[in-house]
Design brief:
Two copies of one chain form a homodimer. Chain A is α+β, with helices and mostly antiparallel strands. Helices cover 49% and strands 23% of the residues of chain A. The first copy, chain A, has six helices and six strands. In chain A, the strands form two sheets. A three-stranded antiparallel β-sheet of chain A has the order 1-3-2. A three-stranded mixed β-sheet of chain A has the order 5-4-6. In chain A, strand 2 and strand 3 form a beta hairpin. In chain A, helix 2 crosses helix 4 and helix 3 packs across helix 4. The longest helix of chain A is centred in the N-terminal third of the chain and has 16 residues. The relative contact order of chain A is 0.12. At the A-B interface, helix 5 and strand 6 of A face helix 5 and strand 6 of B. Strand 6 of chain A pairs antiparallel with strand 6 of chain B, so a sheet runs across the interface. Chain A binds a DNA duplex through helix 2 and helix 4.
DNA sequence: CCCAACATTGAGACTCATTTTCAATAATGG
DNA sequence: CCATTATTGAAAATGAGTCTCAATGTTGGG
């Protein structure tokens, strides 16, 4: 199953980097992979603490950065002041954000991505990644 | 000239809101309009201090927020941890950001925007604004 | 022109997310 | 099992941005 492959890949990355595999790193990766997307370090920390109250705040922050370096997680800013991480193994997507209720909907649009590549090329850029956020009001919030 | 119109509009907004026109607000607006885009509060503050060393840090922050409320400036996040403001009177545009040298290039693409509206509509959203950042390497940085 | 009413300012204290420090602890290779 | 070296947790530090408050400036009326 995918999760096991990700965990195995993480352990290999650690070895490559000369880092150690620890209980905390395993626990954090587990919890990160279990939950849905868009998790902040704090949310993850609070959930982890329910299982293991001895886990440290800083460890969660450090480990999320490590996941980023290992290509497991990617940081995103949605404008609420917290960095949220999503799994790099989710298929690529962009976000619709409701400015009333905070709901986040994911979408993908290959046509938009093709146009991005075209525009970048016209300016001599090679793109690594992009961030597209659309802010507005969702169906429910428009009713009220 | 455009700047004078913006300043006049700002003074009207102040009156409407029951706020006062002060020397600091004028100075900050002047400096904001003089400089190119993507200014952080701190950069603006440092430049203002050269002319008027008595200006306060908090005043610059407050005034930028006020500009935002008055429709003069818009905040943006480029991932360096600082909020940067651009003039609302620049035509709408998105950004290409070089992750090596930090250069920011602006572009516009109506096709992409049309597709954004379409996608949003399919999810029942009405969009107020969007943020599209493309991160990569510029022509110069790819050479090295 | 002057005053009263009230908005604004600047300095510094404060917040909040995140990072760093450091002594204690745990993982790894031999 | 040991020595080496990375990691951890707690607390202190950081940095962008916000708030507080006494002093100051702006305004509309008189």
């Amino acid at each position: 199953m995918l999760k096991e492959k990700i965990k195995a890949g993480f352990r290999s990355s650690l070895v490559e980097k000369g880092l150690k595999s620890t209980r905390q790193r395993e626990e954090i990766l587990d919890e990160f992979l279990n939950d849905g997307s868009h998790q902040s370090a704090e949310e993850l920390y609070l959930r982890l603490r329910r299982k293991n109250p001895r886990i440290g705040y800083a460890t969660v922050y450090r480990t999320l950065k490590l996941f980023e370096e290992c290509g497991i997680a990617e940081p995103r800013q949605f404008g609420d002041g917290q960095t949220r991480y999503e799994s790099s193994f989710d298929e690529h997507h962009d976000h619709l954000i409701c400015t009333t209720c905070g709901k986040i909907i994911e979408f993908e649009n290959p046509e938009i991505e093709a146009l991005q590549l075209k525009v970048a090329g016209e300016h001599g850029f090679v793109i690594d990644r992009h961030r597209l956020n659309l802010y507005g009001r969702c169906r429910d919030c428009r009713k009220t």
